[in-house]
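Aim 2, interim progress. The first record below pairs a target sequence with its C-alpha cells.
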Amino acid sequence: MIRNVPEIRNPDFSKKNGGLLLVKGSTKKYLRSLAHHLNPVVLIGRSGVTDQLIAAIDAALNDHELIKVKFNEFKADKKEIATEIAGATKSELAGLIGNIAILYRQNPRPELRKFKLNE
C-alpha cells in the first residue's frame, strides 16, 4: 500500500546532509501514527551504539522504511543517541516516545517504497 505523505525540501539542508529528506512536523506526526502498531525491530542494550547496531538499523530501514528502536539502556541520553543514529543512517527521526525512537528513511528503489512522498 502506498500512501501520500507531504514533504518539504530545504536546499541548505540538502547541501549539508547529502540530499536527505527534511519532513514537516505534520508529516512526522503522520509517520508516528503509522508506527503506533509497529514493534521495535532493534534494541539498544549495554553495548550502546556500535557499527553492528548501525548496520542492523540500516538494514531494517532498507526493508521497512519506518522502524522503532527501543532503548533498554542509555535512557538518559536517548535523544542524543537517536539523533546520532539518524545521522549515521541518513534517516529522519520522526519521534521519540518514551524509550522508543521512530526512524524513517525512504527506500532508494521507487518500486519498493511503502510511502509515496509528494515532491
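The second target in this work package is listed in the same format:
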Amino acid sequence: MNNFFAFFVRIIAKYELAFVPLPSNLKNDKNMVDIKVLGPGCAKCKATYGNVLEALKQVDVEATVEKVEDIEEMMKYNVLTTPVLVIDGQIKIKGRVAQVNEIVELLKK
C-alpha cells in the first residue's frame, strides 16, 4: 500500500497538482522525504514551490511537498526571510529562490 501512495505523490509532483496530505503513518516512512516551502504566497515563494516540483521530476525520490503560508506555522522555524526550503525538518535554503539544480543536489544527499 505504501508504494501506491508514493506513486500518487510522484504523480502529484509531476503534473503540479495541489498538495494532498498523506496519512500520518506514511509520513514516517524512512524512504519518504518531507519537503516544505515556507512563505506568504509571494512570487518568490511560488517560484521555489514550482522548482521543488520540477526537481522531483528529475530525481527518483518519494516525497511529500507542502506549501506553508500560515504565519504561525512559519514562526516555528524562527526565520525572518522567505521563501524557506525545509527538507526533513531542516532548513536548507532561506531568503531566496531555490534553484532546481540546488534542490536536486539536496535531494540526492
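The chain is about 45% helix and 20% strand. This observation will shape the mutagenesis plan for the next reporting period.
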